[in-house]
Amino acid sequence: MVFAPGEKPGNEPEEVRLQNASKQIVQNAILQAVRQVSQESQHREERISDSRGHIQLGVGELTKKHEKK
């Protein structure tokens, strides 16, 4: 086995620890991104529902005014 300058034999536990830490960082970043996308989608759906509610109310009001005539 060939070691780079400054690298010492027996550093495998350190390397494994760093790999595990790196995996954890990536997993956390992915989880955070998924949560953010989920929240943005939920907010988008709420805005769409709100706008549909306003449109439906407007149509209902027009119908009621038309019935009174």
Task: Provide the fold topology.
Layout: H1 12-68
Number of strands: 0
Query: Which structural class is indicated by helix and strand composition?
Result: mainly alpha
Q: Which H/E pattern describes the elements? A: H
Low-confidence stretches: none
Distance from first to last alpha carbon: 93 Å
Strand residues, percent: under 5%
Radius of gyration: 29 Å
Explain this structure to me?
With 69 residues, the chain is mostly helical. The protein is 83% helix and 0% strand. The longest helix is centred in the middle third of the chain and has 57 residues. It is rod-shaped.
What labels describe this entry?
mainly alpha; 69 residues; 1 helix; AKAP7_RI-RII-bd_dom; A-kinase anchor inhibitor 1; single chain; rod-shaped
